[in-house]
């Protein structure tokens, strides 16, 4: 075998490897889009946030709500509230933010379900395209498991679940669990909503 044949063989093998890498990349992207990505545990800087701020126990699945926009919206019922950290222990804590005592409903202000209201209980509300989400949003910019709202120490917190297009609170992208002020706009995909009294 001369040099030109060896070069041709190496080029063929390299081309086949690149082709297979491209195919695996497409399959991975399709799998992530259809089934969603696994929710990863957040890495927290122990120096800035006490360990009590993020309980180690997994968050229970929320009760599913009807996915169709025309279907009546049932109140979100809640399991027993979990122990909560002190307000100063949670990232994004600020004075004057909404508490569960004066926040009673989630109102969708724009998007396919604009005008829809969800009564708030005390359980976690999951948001995404998946049918097992509490609030199902079906658009091209929403991930299968996009975000969740959770009640910590009588404060509603917004957490992005590693979504592709991000979760925005008052125009800023959410990267850590953040308190939601009363009447602040939360944007997920093409849908915006607010927490109100």
UniProtKB/TrEMBL annotation:
Would the keyword Membrane be found if you checked this record's keyword annotation? yes
Q: Which SMART domains match?
A: FHA (SM00240)
List the keywords (alphabetical).
Answer: Membrane, Phosphoprotein, Transmembrane, Transmembrane helix
Q: Which SUPFAM superfamilies match?
A: SMAD/FHA domain
Q: Where are the transmembrane segments?
A: 6-30
Which ranges carry the FHA domain?
Answer: 125-174
What is the official name of this protein in its record? Answer: FHA domain-containing protein
